[in-house]
Amino acid sequence: xxxxxxxxxxxxxxxxxxxxxxxxxxxxxxxxxxxxxxxxxxxxxxxxxxxxxxxxxxxxxxxxxxxxxxxxxxxxxxxxxxxxxxxxxxxxxxxxxxxxxxxxxxxxxxxxxxxxx
Length: 117
Hints:
Blueprint: H1 5-19, H2 40-53, E1 57-59, E2 64-68, E3 73-78, E4 81-85, E5 90-94, E6 97-101, H3 102-105, H4 110-113
Antiparallel strand pairs: 1-4, 2-3, 3-6, 4-5
């Protein structure tokens, strides 16, 4: 059975491609791709180390944090961890955040809006 030159060229190309993925000789197992799992705890540790270097202290007893945006939405943190450094005028807020509309939070946050609103 004769194979056309195009098919033979394609077979040779595939054979050359798979020759480089073997770790041993013929009959050995192909090399597997190593999957790196991301570790988010290392990022959190680095962040906490930088906050400690800036002199940030935890502020206990904060029940919620609301950040008002220009477009009328609110970033709402319920039971966040708040750290502050008064000397460097820095606040770090961590926890689960929800984007909500201002109307959803209105009855409970009227005292946070201030006199001009």
